[in-house]
Each structure stands twice: as structure tokens, then as C-alpha cells.
């Protein structure tokens, strides 16, 4: 077996340090989000030497294949232009869905946070803080309502809206996925529909341009209605479903109640982003089944001009 120290020079010193420290950090897995250029066999050697599972979430399908060929444990996360925090969340969801991680586990993530060519950043993440109430069984149950690929794309955009907002402003939204025909019947337009008139293929939220449009439109009142295949059927809709028989955690307002309510009377899943907290919640059959807390944004180094007294913070 190759020692961790021996493989250090071939892969990344920071990753070797992470692997060496897992016991002290109390982590149950190492999650690697490798940059484009990677020494896959070196990474495999490190994975073999690691005392806990080393999970790899490559950024593109080509790299998924390279990592698999090297015999690594691969998490397939849809290629996305999202920030690293979203990629980490999606990778963790995938790991839980594959039963590779337990919902409350602690994980050390190593990624290219600052420089896109190297593994330069490391974060310890407690899943309980960010992904509450979620098991592999929950995910399989969700799939009976909406295909996972669609759901992951919705979660991806929701997590991004919750973390980033828009142009410095906090933004919340409601996205109802699946059983679109019945959801449409139980809702009405608040203003003109920004997606009206576009062809179906130009309204699919797996398309990054459509995801950008969703982030923009999320600032308006009302929610999105999305069909199982990811087509945005309508936006700016007021959801109208009865609250009877629902019980939600304290502090959640009408957006969350409307999201929970619509899933009780239709075969849909509601993804709700809270404007005030950025937390994303999933509802099915009137109940909350997943809560994703936003990860703090990595702070980039900033140069200040010492001659200037002006501060733009
Ligand atoms: N039935 C509904 N359908 C669609 N959107 C709704 C509905 N009810 C409320 N909203 C949207 O939610 C916004 C915020 O409402 P409210 O503050 O009561 O919700 P909340 O659940 O507390 O969410 P947040 O945490 O984002 O504030 C409203 O301005 C509106 O745009």
C-alpha cells in the first residue's frame, strides 16, 4: 500500500493533509471536487491509503469517466456553472442518496476555491447543519414523484437563489415541480407570465440560460410551476391550495404554507427558498422532507488601497 506521504507530491499537499487529519477532525469521509487537471492515479493511491472513504465529484462528464477508470468512488453531479458551495451541496446529496454518507455525518471537502487549477481550499462540513431530515429512502421516495435529474436542477437553482439573492438583495421563491396540469389549475397568474410564448425546449431549467432567467424572475411575486421533465410551465403564479390539516414548523409564513399545501392536493414537490434566511425546504404530501441551510460564501482576498479613506463595504 502506498503511504499518504508518498502520494503527497503527486496529488495535492492540502488533500494529503486533509486525509491525514480525518480522525482528528472527526470526519467520516473526504469529498474531493477536483480541478480540470488531475493526477487520477495519484488520487487513487491516496484513496487507497485513506482510513475513510474518499469521494470524488468531478466537474465534467469527461472527468467522471477518467475518475471511474482510475477506480475512484465517483459522485456524478450534473455539470453546472454554479459556485463551489452549490456543487458541494449537490455532491453531498448524491452521496447520501447512494448511502455513502449518513445524514448527520461530518465531511472534509477539498476543492479549488480560490484558483481554478489547484486544490487550494478545505472546509469541514457537518451535514446535519446543512442537510436536515434527509435519508436515501427519502430521496427514493421523491423520485416516484419527479425524476431526480429534474429535482436536482431545481434544488441547484434554489440553493443558489438562497445563498446569493440577486444584485445584493435577498430573494425568496417557490418552485412547484411535477403534476403541472393540476398545479396550474390550483393557481392563477399574478402578472403577465414571463415564460409565455417561448418554445418548450427554450424553457427547460436544465438549460443554464433558463436557470439564470429563473433567478431574475424570482424577484417578482409568486411561484414557478415546472413539469416533470423540467419545463417551466408558468411563472409569477399565486398558488391557491387549502392549509387544512397541515402542520409546519413555527416561523414559516405564507410562501411555505402555500408550498406545503399544494403538495397535499397534487402529486408534486414544492421547493421553497426563504427570502429572510436563504434556507431551502422541500415539501411532499404536505410535509417538509428536506431542509438545506446555505453554506457561507467563501471570502475572496481583497486588496485595499491604503491611501484611500473611502470604504465600499
Ligand atoms: N400562495 C402563494 N403563492 C405564491 N407565492 C406566494 C404565496 N404566498 C406568498 N407568496 C410569496 O411569498 C412572499 C413572502 O410571503 P411571506 O413572508 O408570508 O412568506 P414566508 O413563508 O415567511 O417566506 P420568507 O421566509 O421568504 O419571507 C410573498 O411576497 C409572495 O411573493
UniProtKB/TrEMBL annotation:
| A GO term, aspect molecular function | ATP binding
Which Pfam families does this UniProt record tie to the protein?
A: DAC (PF02457), DacZ_P (PF21755)
Record-annotated membrane-spanning stretches: none
Q: Which residues form the DAC domain?
A: 136-294
Highest taxon of source: Bacteria
Catalyzed reaction equations: 2 ATP = 3',3'-c-di-AMP + 2 diphosphate
Q: Which UniProt keywords apply?
A: ATP-binding, Nucleotide-binding, Nucleotidyltransferase, Transferase
Descriptive protein name: DAC domain-containing protein
Taxonomic classification: Bacteria, Pseudomonadati, Planctomycetota, Planctomycetia, Isosphaerales
Amino acid at each position: 500500500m502506498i503511504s499518504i506521504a508518498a502520494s503527497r507530491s503527486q496529488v495535492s499537499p492540502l488533500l494529503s493533509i486533509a486525509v491525514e487529519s480525518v480522525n482528528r477532525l472527526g470526519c467520516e469521509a473526504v469529498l474531493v471536487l477536483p480541478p480540470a487537471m488531475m493526477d487520477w492515479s495519484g488520487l487513487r493511491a491516496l484513496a487507497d491509503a485513506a482510513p475513510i472513504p474518499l469521494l470524488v465529484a468531478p466537474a465534467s462528464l469527461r472527468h467522471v469517466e477518467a475518475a471511474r477508470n482510475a477506480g475512484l468512488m465517483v459522485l456524478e453531479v450534473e455539470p453546472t456553472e454554479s459556485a463551489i458551495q452549490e456543487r458541494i451541496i449537490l455532491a453531498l446529496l448524491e452521496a447520501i442518496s447512494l448511502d455513502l454518507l449518513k445524514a448527520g455525518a461530518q465531511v472534509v471537502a477539498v476543492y479549488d476555491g480560490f484558483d481554478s487549477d489547484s486544490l487550494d481550499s478545505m472546509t469541514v462540513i457537518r451535514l446535519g447543519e446543512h442537510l436536515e431530515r434527509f435519508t436515501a429512502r427519502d430521496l427514493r421516495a421523491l423520485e416516484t414523484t419527479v425524476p431526480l435529474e429534474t429535482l436536482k436542477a431545481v434544488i441547484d437553482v434554489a440553493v443558489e437563489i438562497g445563498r446569493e439573492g440577486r444584485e445584493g438583495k435577498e430573494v425568496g421563491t417557490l418552485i412547484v415541480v411535477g403534476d403541472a396540469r393540476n398545479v396550474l389549475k390550483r393557481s392563477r397568474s399574478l402578472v403577465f407570465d414571463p415564460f409565455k410564448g417561448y418554445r418548450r425546449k427554450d424553457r427547460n431549467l436544465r438549460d443554464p440560460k433558463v436557470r439564470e432567467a429563473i433567478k431574475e424572475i424570482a424577484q417578482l411575486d409568486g411561484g414557478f410551476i415546472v413539469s416533470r421533465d423540467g419545463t417551466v410551465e408558468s411563472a409569477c403564479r399565486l398558488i391557491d391550495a387549502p392549509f387544512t390539516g397541515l402542520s409546519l414548523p413555527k416561523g414559516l409564513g405564507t410562501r411555505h404554507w402555500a408550498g406545503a399545501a399544494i403538495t397535499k392536493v397534487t402529486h408534486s414537490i414544492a421547493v421553497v427558498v426563504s427570502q429572510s434566511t436563504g434556507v431551502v425546504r422541500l415539501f411532499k404530501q404536505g410535509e417538509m422532507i428536506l431542509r438545506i441551510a446555505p453554506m457561507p460564501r467563501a471570502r475572496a482576498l481583497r486588496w485595499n488601497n491604503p491611501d484611500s479613506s473611502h470604504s465600499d463595504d
